[in-house]
Design goal:
The protein contains 4 helices and no strands. With 92 residues, it is an all-alpha fold. It has one domain. Helix 1 crosses helix 4, helix 2 runs antiparallel to helix 3 and helix 2 runs parallel beside helix 4. The chain is globular and about 40 Å long. The mean pLDDT is 91.
């Protein structure tokens, strides 16, 4: 876990953007699901959809520039994880 945190803090603007976008997406999708009475289970589609968006973005980058950055995926997953923790704290 420490390596992920170190990676994010030492990374450039791109990794922070991945982290923030995934954090916001996770919380937004969770909020919609929670408002539709899915309860805490709204985290499932929030995580799945956000992760798919992150992976699809990297696949797009691979086709366009030839680069598939695993670091971007790590930043995405860290943003999703933090979003899940925040969501669970809010509804607890």
């Amino acid at each position: 876990m420490k390596d992920w945190i170190k990676f994010i803090f030492e990374a450039g603007k791109d990794k922070w953007m991945h982290f923030c976008v995934c954090l916001i997406l996770t919380l937004s999708i969770f909020a919609i699901g929670y408002a539709l009475n899915f309860g805490k289970m709204a985290l499932v589609p929030a995580v799945v959809v956000t992760a798919l968006i992150g992976v699809c973005k990297e696949i797009y980058d691979k086709k366009k520039t030839g680069l598939f950055e695993q670091g971007d995926i790590l930043a995405d997953m860290f943003g999703i994880m933090v979003g899940c923790i925040i969501a669970l704290i809010i509804v607890a």
